């Protein structure tokens, strides 16, 4: 439960993983086409098809548990939505497995995560917001001044 031992996976990292998956699929298609087509008639336009990359990105934004429409009621709600932390989703916890000790406020949360701003109901303690001066460093750890 200590934030010093937890890594935050940022949106950029998640999208980077999806683009990597799409590029590997595209590479496999290009390799197949290079073996089946005539070497003299091959052009980059006939080899490269970007549909696997586009499909991987659409899959992330369309079906991922972490993808949701941004709250745009007012500028403050949009900013709060962008600073949200989520312990659920792929590589995280599930609502059923998360016990009380995971949902409770740990002393390492102070300065990093707002202990007050969490939803009520089954997601209590699993979804929170970054504190005012908290930031995610390049290694994915949440820092506070």
From TrEMBL:
Keywords: DNA-directed RNA polymerase, Nucleotidyltransferase, Transcription, Transferase
Record-linked Pfam families: RNA_pol_Rpb2_3 (PF04565)
Domain RNA polymerase Rpb2: 68-136
BP-aspect Gene Ontology terms: DNA-templated transcription
Molecular function (Gene Ontology), one example: ribonucleoside binding
SUPFAM superfamilies: beta and beta-prime subunits of DNA dependent RNA-polymerase
Highest taxon above the source species: Bacteria
EC number per UniProt: 2.7.7.6
GO cellular component assignments: DNA-directed RNA polymerase complex
Family: Belongs to the RNA polymerase beta chain family.
PANTHER family found in the cross-reference section: DNA-DIRECTED RNA POLYMERASE I SUBUNIT 2 (PTHR20856)
Name under which the protein is recorded: DNA-directed RNA polymerase
Gene: rpoB
